[in-house]
Amino acid sequence: MRISVNKKEYEVIEEPQRHILVPTKKELHGWWPGKRECTSERMLINPYNGCGIGCFFCYTLAFPGHFQLFRESKVIVVAKDFDKEVSEQLDSIDVASCGYLSPVSDPFQPLNEKYRLSEKIIKAFVERNIPIEFITKAKVPQEAIELIKTQKHSFGQVSILTLNENLRKILVPRGASTDVLFQNLERLSKEGIFAVCRIDPIFPYITDRVKDLEEIIERARSSGVTHIIASVLDIPVKIKENILQNIKRYFGVGMEWDYRRLYKENIDGYLHADIDYRKRVFDALRNICERKNLTFALCMEYEIKKDEVRGLNQEFMSSRNCEGIDIPIYIRKEDKFYPACDCKGDCLHCTNPVCGIEDLAMGREGSKKDWRLSDYKRWSKELKVAG
């Protein structure tokens, strides 16, 4: 079978999951434009468009382009030899922020076992002494752990939605078991790698019992975790009916109507649960974390206040950076990169850029908050002139 993408035809490879190999020139880039809660700058890396883990609530199903191919045909687009492209881009710059693998599709999804693009990309960063992080609901390959443990600011995040394995199979059908997810955290912690547990997202009336959430947090703490990140499910308007039909399918018509009543607030094309409900959940989570001597933050949580969109981290976050770890901007010295002196990585709040890059002092009024590879190249030139 062949499929057309951008007027070119590609052979569909059926095993281990339906996918196509597509040559790519896509570039490393920073956070998307618009509202932003992420304190630290990141270079976003997506080797796979589409994901074989199969979460019915995945917001990327509302994304355009290759993600619509996955939504409609269940064909994952694999960025052919993307690790080589990433390596060339890293060699073209003298300024780097932490790599982020990956913000939209699980880097260790089943298809990665065939191509190992995620491990190859991690290696490209670590060989240059540039930090990189990953977020996963799958088993972390041992190779990834062996690589990142050699780079002091690299770290891992593991998403754990429930301790109920039967429920986990509904929400994350082809992800790792709950036990394996906690083993991920233990394996990272034992190697001295900063490990984050994400309860992300929380499903109202399904996974939101405070007692159950506290059990996840306690087990994560026992696995070596010192930082928790959480969010409540939000629903892209574009795929609202699809998600609600799945809620009805798995949890009944009564639950579907509960969701329709709860999800009324539209913020930039995403429906959010009632703000009072969300704040109750977040307040309970922060209190639990404080009692257990853990730090806490939210991911992409907002409210509308006085006709403005306001991030909730300023109310609930207890760490300097939302991921619980301070990662500086890195600067090249000959063939390796090294941390900028005294940089704490909290670019969103920075007013005095010790890294030397004025653009990254985003605590200043009117500062741009989305960056491209061309910006990294420009900063590299500016630092050469200055230094």
From TrEMBL:
GO molecular function, one term: metal ion binding
Domain of life from the UniProt record: Bacteria
Keywords for this protein: Iron, Iron-sulfur, Metal-binding
A Pfam family of this chain: Radical_SAM
Residue span, Radical SAM core domain: 45-218
Protein name: Radical SAM core domain-containing protein
Organism: Aerophobetes bacterium
